[in-house]
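Our consortium's second objective concerns turning raw sequence data into structural hypotheses that experimental partners can test. To show how far this objective has progressed, the report includes one record in full. It was chosen at random from the queue rather than selected for favorable results. The single chain below, 299 residues long, was entered without modification.
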Amino acid sequence: MSNLIEQYLGIGPALQSKLLATFIIILAVYILQRLVVKFLLKAIDEITIRYQWQKIILYTSVIIAVILLIRVWFGAFESLGTYFGLLTAGLAIALKDLLVNFVGWVFILIRKPFNVGDRIQIGDITGDVIDLRIFQFSVIEVGNWVDSDQSTGRIIHIPNGHVFTKSQANYTAGFEYIWNEIPVLITFESDWKKAKKILLDAVNKHAIHFNEEAERQIKAAARKFLIFYKTLTPIVYTAKKDSGVMLSMRYLCKVRMRRSTEEAIWEEVLEQFTHHDDIHFAYPTQRFYNNMQEGKGGK
C-alpha cells in the first residue's frame, strides 16, 4: 500500500507516516473531546456553567492536538519535560479565567476586602454579599431601578477575578455607618433661619445617637484605614442656589437604614413646615414681570 501511494501520488513513506499520524491524532482528540462533553457534563444542569465548560474542553482539546501535531511534523521538542511544559502552558491559556478566579478567591480569603454579609459595590454592581465560592461570589442586588439602596431581589454571580480589575467599595468594613445628606430647597422669601432650626431639630430627633460601641468602631476604623471624623453629630449646611436657599441635612446612619431614616426625617419636616406660613419650598416656576403693575413707571 505504501509503495502504491508513493508510485501514484508521489508521497514518500516518511510523509505518509506523518499524514497517518495527523489523521489519528485529530480523530482521537475529537472522539475524546466528544466523550468528555457527553459524560462529564451530563450532570451539569445550569446552562451558563455548561457552556463555559464546553468552551474550556474545546480549547484544551485544540491545544493538545496542536502540540501533538507540532511534535509529528516539526519534531519541535524531543524531551518529555519540554512536551509537558508546553502542554501545561497550553492548559494555562485555556483555563486562564478559572485560574484567575481561583487566585481571586485566595485573595478574598487572605486580604478580606469583603466578607459574607458586607454591602459592597464592585464596578457598577451594588449588593449584599451572600456567598463566597472558589470561582465566584454572589450578591443580592440593591439599588439599580429601586431607589434608596433597597433590594431588587436579584442574585448576581460575579467572577472572583473581578477583584483585580474593578474598583470596590465596602459600605460596612470596620465601620457600619455612612453619611447621608437630604437637600431641602426653600424660597428666598422664606425665613431660612427658622427653617434651618426646624431641619436641625428633625435630623437630631431621627438620626442615630452614638453609644460607646459606635465610638469604639469609629476609633478602630480610624486606626486601620486612617480615617478621621472631626464632627459626628448631625449638621445643616446653608448654600445659595439660583432658585432659592439650599439647606442640606447631613447625618450618619446605618448602611441599611438610609431609606427609613430619610423617610422619618422628611415626614417630620413636612409636618413642621405646615405650621409656618413664612417657609415655602422652592420649585421650578415662571414669573411674568409687568412694569406698570409693579409701580416702576415708564412705558
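The partners drew two points from this record. Strands lie at 119-122, 125-132, 136-142, 151-159, 168-170, 177-186, 235-241, 244-254. The longest strand covers residues 244-254. Both points have been shared with the crystallography group to help prioritize constructs.
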